[in-house]
Write a structure and sequence with these properties.
The chain is an alpha+beta fold. The chain has a domain of 87 residues: Beta-Lactamase, CATH 3.30.450. Helix content is 33%, strand content 29%. The protein has 4 helices and 5 strands. Strands 2-1-5-4-3 form a 5-stranded antiparallel sheet. Strand 3 and strand 4 form a beta hairpin. The longest helix is centred in the C-terminal third of the chain and has 21 residues. The radius of gyration is 17 Å and the shape is globular. It starts with a strand and ends in a 14-residue tail after the last helix.
Amino acid sequence: MNDLRFVVDGDDRITRVADEHRATMARYLGHPLWTYLPGSEPVLSPIFEEARETQERVESTVFYAGGTVDVRVTPADATLAVRLRRRTDLNVRTLATLAQSLRSIEAELAARERVRPDRLAPASPRALP
């Protein structure tokens, strides 16, 4: 998963995939994304929900499958266009490389949290004076 692009419907089923991913993902068309990316539901579901609620693009960096992944989710009608791009991998060759990769992953996740904008609070015209 270096740069994965696909579309999911309201039930998180894969409905379309980028041409370069057809060979690996075609058999998953119509199936839940969680079948293709096991263990990703707790990480990606909140991002999908936020994009559906706000109807705006949501970007985040998450830890998934042993590394950091940039997630970009763009709502389009009843679907979500999703791009997952691998940033780093956990390097377990030696204790030193493991420690270095953990520091790198921690720094990436912390930096992304600082720049992530706050969610807009729900507003009601009745709340205005």
